[in-house]
Design goal:
Rossmann fold; globular; 191 residues; alpha/beta; 6 helices
Length: 191
Protein backbone atom coordinates (compact mmCIF):
# COMPACT_ATOMS: atom_id res chain seq x y z
CA UNK A 1 0.00 0.00 0.00
CA UNK A 2 1.10 3.57 -0.62
CA UNK A 3 0.49 4.93 2.86
CA UNK A 4 0.65 8.51 1.61
CA UNK A 5 -2.64 7.88 -0.24
CA UNK A 6 -5.89 7.87 1.74
CA UNK A 7 -7.63 5.21 -0.38
CA UNK A 8 -4.71 2.80 0.08
CA UNK A 9 -4.68 3.41 3.84
CA UNK A 10 -8.43 2.81 4.07
CA UNK A 11 -8.03 -0.51 2.23
CA UNK A 12 -5.08 -1.44 4.43
CA UNK A 13 -7.10 -0.99 7.62
CA UNK A 14 -10.09 -2.84 6.15
CA UNK A 15 -7.91 -5.80 5.09
CA UNK A 16 -6.19 -5.86 8.48
CA UNK A 17 -9.53 -6.07 10.28
CA UNK A 18 -10.79 -8.71 7.84
CA UNK A 19 -7.70 -10.83 8.46
CA UNK A 20 -7.22 -10.34 12.22
CA UNK A 21 -10.74 -9.44 13.35
CA UNK A 22 -9.67 -6.12 14.89
CA UNK A 23 -6.89 -3.55 14.98
CA UNK A 24 -5.16 -2.97 18.30
CA UNK A 25 -1.68 -1.74 17.38
CA UNK A 26 -0.31 0.50 14.64
CA UNK A 27 3.38 1.11 14.01
CA UNK A 28 3.86 4.01 11.58
CA UNK A 29 7.20 3.07 10.05
CA UNK A 30 7.07 4.38 6.48
CA UNK A 31 9.57 6.99 5.43
CA UNK A 32 12.42 7.99 3.17
CA UNK A 33 15.72 9.73 3.91
CA UNK A 34 17.24 11.44 0.85
CA UNK A 35 19.95 14.10 0.88
CA UNK A 36 19.14 17.49 -0.65
CA UNK A 37 20.60 20.86 0.24
CA UNK A 38 17.98 23.48 1.02
CA UNK A 39 19.01 25.78 -1.82
CA UNK A 40 19.11 23.01 -4.45
CA UNK A 41 16.03 21.08 -3.33
CA UNK A 42 13.18 20.80 -5.82
CA UNK A 43 9.66 21.34 -4.57
CA UNK A 44 8.89 17.76 -5.63
CA UNK A 45 11.66 16.49 -3.32
CA UNK A 46 10.15 18.41 -0.40
CA UNK A 47 6.66 17.06 -1.17
CA UNK A 48 7.85 13.46 -1.51
CA UNK A 49 9.65 13.50 1.84
CA UNK A 50 6.76 15.19 3.66
CA UNK A 51 4.24 12.79 2.09
CA UNK A 52 6.32 9.71 2.93
CA UNK A 53 7.25 10.72 6.46
CA UNK A 54 4.45 12.95 7.79
CA UNK A 55 1.33 12.65 5.64
CA UNK A 56 1.52 8.85 5.89
CA UNK A 57 1.68 9.09 9.69
CA UNK A 58 -1.40 11.32 9.75
CA UNK A 59 -3.43 9.15 7.37
CA UNK A 60 -2.57 5.86 9.07
CA UNK A 61 -3.13 7.28 12.56
CA UNK A 62 -6.49 8.71 11.54
CA UNK A 63 -7.70 5.48 9.94
CA UNK A 64 -6.44 3.28 12.78
CA UNK A 65 -7.87 5.58 15.45
CA UNK A 66 -11.29 5.51 13.81
CA UNK A 67 -11.20 1.71 13.77
CA UNK A 68 -9.97 1.50 17.37
CA UNK A 69 -12.68 3.91 18.51
CA UNK A 70 -15.34 1.84 16.73
CA UNK A 71 -14.05 -1.27 18.48
CA UNK A 72 -14.22 0.50 21.84
CA UNK A 73 -11.23 -1.34 23.29
CA UNK A 74 -8.48 1.27 22.99
CA UNK A 75 -5.20 0.62 21.28
CA UNK A 76 -1.59 1.67 20.83
CA UNK A 77 -0.02 3.70 18.06
CA UNK A 78 3.75 4.08 17.75
CA UNK A 79 5.14 6.61 15.29
CA UNK A 80 8.71 6.27 14.07
CA UNK A 81 10.27 9.73 14.22
CA UNK A 82 14.01 10.43 14.36
CA UNK A 83 16.49 12.24 16.52
CA UNK A 84 16.62 14.65 13.58
CA UNK A 85 13.13 15.78 14.55
CA UNK A 86 14.85 17.49 17.50
CA UNK A 87 18.42 17.87 16.27
CA UNK A 88 18.60 18.79 12.56
CA UNK A 89 21.33 17.58 10.22
CA UNK A 90 22.85 19.21 7.14
CA UNK A 91 21.06 18.57 3.83
CA UNK A 92 17.98 17.16 5.55
CA UNK A 93 15.71 20.18 6.07
CA UNK A 94 12.75 18.34 4.52
CA UNK A 95 13.34 15.17 6.55
CA UNK A 96 14.00 17.10 9.76
CA UNK A 97 10.81 19.14 9.29
CA UNK A 98 8.79 15.99 8.63
CA UNK A 99 10.13 14.15 11.68
CA UNK A 100 9.62 17.23 13.86
CA UNK A 101 6.05 17.21 12.59
CA UNK A 102 5.72 13.52 13.52
CA UNK A 103 6.75 14.38 17.08
CA UNK A 104 4.18 17.17 17.39
CA UNK A 105 1.51 15.00 15.71
CA UNK A 106 2.29 12.29 18.27
CA UNK A 107 1.76 14.62 21.22
CA UNK A 108 -1.42 16.14 19.77
CA UNK A 109 -2.84 12.72 18.88
CA UNK A 110 -2.06 11.35 22.35
CA UNK A 111 -3.96 14.23 23.91
CA UNK A 112 -6.95 13.84 21.59
CA UNK A 113 -7.17 10.05 21.56
CA UNK A 114 -6.34 9.37 25.21
CA UNK A 115 -9.98 9.62 26.37
CA UNK A 116 -10.72 6.74 23.97
CA UNK A 117 -8.06 4.55 25.55
CA UNK A 118 -5.73 4.95 22.59
CA UNK A 119 -2.10 5.58 23.49
CA UNK A 120 0.14 7.37 20.97
CA UNK A 121 3.91 7.49 21.36
CA UNK A 122 6.97 8.02 19.20
CA UNK A 123 10.31 6.28 18.87
CA UNK A 124 13.21 8.41 17.63
CA UNK A 125 16.09 6.28 16.40
CA UNK A 126 19.59 7.49 15.84
CA UNK A 127 21.75 5.94 13.15
CA UNK A 128 20.62 2.34 12.60
CA UNK A 129 22.88 -0.20 10.93
CA UNK A 130 21.89 -1.60 7.57
CA UNK A 131 23.77 -3.59 4.97
CA UNK A 132 26.14 -1.40 2.97
CA UNK A 133 26.06 1.56 5.38
CA UNK A 134 29.78 1.41 6.19
CA UNK A 135 30.65 1.49 2.48
CA UNK A 136 28.25 4.35 1.70
CA UNK A 137 29.16 6.59 4.63
CA UNK A 138 32.40 5.41 6.31
CA UNK A 139 33.24 8.75 7.96
CA UNK A 140 29.73 9.15 9.31
CA UNK A 141 29.63 5.64 10.75
CA UNK A 142 32.96 6.20 12.50
CA UNK A 143 31.78 9.57 13.85
CA UNK A 144 28.54 8.03 15.17
CA UNK A 145 30.31 5.15 16.86
CA UNK A 146 32.61 7.62 18.61
CA UNK A 147 29.72 9.94 19.51
CA UNK A 148 27.52 7.25 21.03
CA UNK A 149 28.28 6.62 24.70
CA UNK A 150 27.31 3.00 24.01
CA UNK A 151 29.99 3.00 21.23
CA UNK A 152 28.04 1.29 18.45
CA UNK A 153 25.40 1.88 15.82
CA UNK A 154 21.84 0.95 16.62
CA UNK A 155 20.38 -2.27 15.31
CA UNK A 156 16.92 -2.72 13.82
CA UNK A 157 16.13 -4.92 16.83
CA UNK A 158 16.86 -1.97 19.17
CA UNK A 159 14.10 0.03 17.50
CA UNK A 160 11.77 -2.99 17.30
CA UNK A 161 12.17 -3.67 21.03
CA UNK A 162 11.30 -0.05 21.85
CA UNK A 163 8.18 -0.31 19.68
CA UNK A 164 7.18 -3.61 21.28
CA UNK A 165 7.48 -2.05 24.72
CA UNK A 166 5.38 1.00 23.84
CA UNK A 167 2.72 -1.17 22.18
CA UNK A 168 2.59 -3.60 25.12
CA UNK A 169 0.51 -3.55 28.31
CA UNK A 170 3.74 -2.73 30.18
CA UNK A 171 3.40 0.81 28.75
CA UNK A 172 -0.30 1.13 29.63
CA UNK A 173 0.25 4.44 31.48
CA UNK A 174 2.53 5.98 28.86
CA UNK A 175 1.24 8.24 26.11
CA UNK A 176 2.52 11.28 24.25
CA UNK A 177 6.20 10.55 24.79
CA UNK A 178 9.18 10.35 22.48
CA UNK A 179 11.47 7.44 23.31
CA UNK A 180 14.93 8.23 21.94
CA UNK A 181 16.80 5.09 20.84
CA UNK A 182 20.24 6.38 19.89
CA UNK A 183 22.83 4.87 22.20
CA UNK A 184 23.09 8.19 24.02
CA UNK A 185 24.07 10.38 21.06
CA UNK A 186 21.47 13.03 21.98
CA UNK A 187 23.27 13.63 25.27
CA UNK A 188 25.55 15.96 23.29
CA UNK A 189 25.85 17.66 19.89
CA UNK A 190 27.60 15.69 17.12
CA UNK A 191 27.17 17.98 14.10
Amino acid sequence: ADVSQKADVTRLVEKTVQHFGQLNILINNAGIYPLHSLVDMAEEDWDLVLDSNLRSTFLCTQAAARQMMNQGSGGAIVNIASIEGQNPAPNHSHYDAAKGGVLMHTAASAYELGPHGIRVNAVSPGLIWRKGLEEEWPDGVTRWQKAAPLTRLGLPSDVADACLFLASPAARWITGINLVVDGGVMTHQIY
